[in-house]
Amino acid sequence: EVQLVESGGGLVQAGGSLRLSCKVSGLSLDDSAIGWFRQAPGKQREAVSCIAPNDGTTYYADSVRGRFTISADDANNAVWLQMNSLNPHDTATYYCAAKGGPIATMNDLMYDYWGQGTQVTVFS
After folding, report:
1. Among 20, 66, 110, 113, which residue's beta carbon has the most beta carbons within 10 A?
2. Integer CA distances (angstroms), 43 to 38, 46, 93, in order
């Protein structure tokens, strides 16, 4: 059974940082791609970033490029999302998702497994 557990969300002042963790079980990172998505109240879910750990391919949404960094932690079978220079527009529930096959994509429809989400709230 594949399970994804996010952690690291919280309340932070604008300009601050948070690091989200997605712990993956039941699926090897080397044979998968992991994506981070977010959804704010009343808005559609949007892709934030994704990674194919086997070759390090990464993609970022334009709104977070240069501020967020995604990375894989093979030893712990986890994926991190380092978020810097946060602003109130980043406020959302953040979800990690996994798909079989090491091809990274920002298309949420391609992901088979989802975590329960972690809340990020940025106040000014």
Report:
1. 20
2. 10, 9, 11
